[in-house]
Amino acid sequence: MRYTLLIGILLLAGLAWGQVDLVKPLEDNKNDNTLLVGYQFEPVIEMTVTPVENQGASGTCWSYCSSSFLESEMIRTGRKPVDLSEMFTVRKVYEEKAVNYVRMHGSYNFGEGGALPDVVQIYGKYGAVPESVYQGLNYGTDINRHGEMQSMLKAMVDAVVANPNKQLTPVWKEAVSKVLDVYLGEYPSEFEYGGKTYTPTSFAEEVIGLNADDYLQISSFTHQPFYKPFTMMVPDNWAYGLTYNVPLDELTVIIDHALLKGYTVAWATDVSEKYFSWRNGIAYVPEKEFNEMCDEERINMFKGPKPERVITPEMRQEAYDNYTTSDDHGMHIVGLVKDQTGAEWYKVKNSWGENNDYKGFLYVSKNYVRYKSISILLHKDGVPKEIRKKLEI
């Protein structure tokens, strides 16, 4: 999910024709028979969630969305949610990426991005810590700004791969760790929380209380057999994690079933389309592509519900294969609503702060999810039993 650094660009380019607030009734034009009333959403399923956060100038949406997901899992299981440290996970991912990068002689992705399961896998392997213990802001800002750190780490692992000594030293991993210490803070091997001393693993076991093995990633592509796991071919799947493949119609069936049963869903998707508007808090698939619209259609894109394209498996596969659907961003599906036409939309929690029309949330049509999703992550019990049986889980 690489584009999550580009919040400012998305706000300008991705919203070029969506710079008008949600339209209210036009009181000053009584003769206008095409009254624009904007979007009117009625909650159908609404989850209790932790507050919206801001990932700042960092490509760490994957950590924010999946951490938010685990916080919601704590709520679902009756525990008091903890504001988890996204940067603790980021640190451990960087350490593991560095090892893989060197083992692959540099033929490997070492960017800031990651995949939805990374947080769960790090949680299962190393535990977790509260954000109050590890904020990851040792470099003097109030918000993440990772450009310098990322460049420095990449230069280090490239120097290791160049192998100027003709044999790697046993201390290069420690050098990477020291850079992470400087920028993010020293590794919290022990910390105080609520008047008790924990390690990251004991905190995960005693306070968070979730089983990392209970979570799975699901997607839908025609180039892989259905109901079998496969390795998702996107650059940010650095850990080569497995994804279960289902027919397209079952993707939203799974999300709907999960929400109905009280499970939220982490969501990886493409956000590069003109019909994804962060400011307006709306994403859908209009009948026409943006470059085929007239000026009036473009201006009115986010002024209330519009007819959408029917999404087919072939369309979805083509968009993935020709790079018009890419692994841009991770968010958190936390509810279901209906608009004034009766169409259902997902309520989505983002990690770009609260500076949009819905205070950090947005509403995404089911067609957008069918078309532009990379994958979803959820608890296995959120999957309908008949589909679980086909997946053999």
From the structure above, extract its key features.
disordered N terminus; two-stranded antiparallel sheet; eleven-stranded mixed sheet; single chain; 393 residues; globular; alpha+beta; Cathepsin B, Chain A; 12 helices
Describe this structure in words.
- There is one protein chain.
- By secondary structure, the protein is an alpha+beta fold.
- The protein is built from twelve helices and 13 strands.
Helix content: 25-40%
Helix and strand element order: HEHHHHHEEHEEEHEEEHHEEEHEH
- Beta-strand segment tally: 13
The overall pLDDT average reads: 92
The stretches of 5 or more residues where confidence is low (pLDDT under 50) are 3-35
Counted up, domains total 1
Strand-pairing-aware structural class: alpha+beta
CATH class: Alpha Beta
Q: Give the helix tally.
A: 12
Name given to the CATH architecture: Alpha-Beta Complex
Relative strand content: 15-25%
Give the biggest beta sheet: 11 strands, mixed
How would you summarize this macromolecular structure in one to three sentences?
Helices cover 33% and strands 15% of the residues. With 393 residues, the protein is an alpha+beta fold.
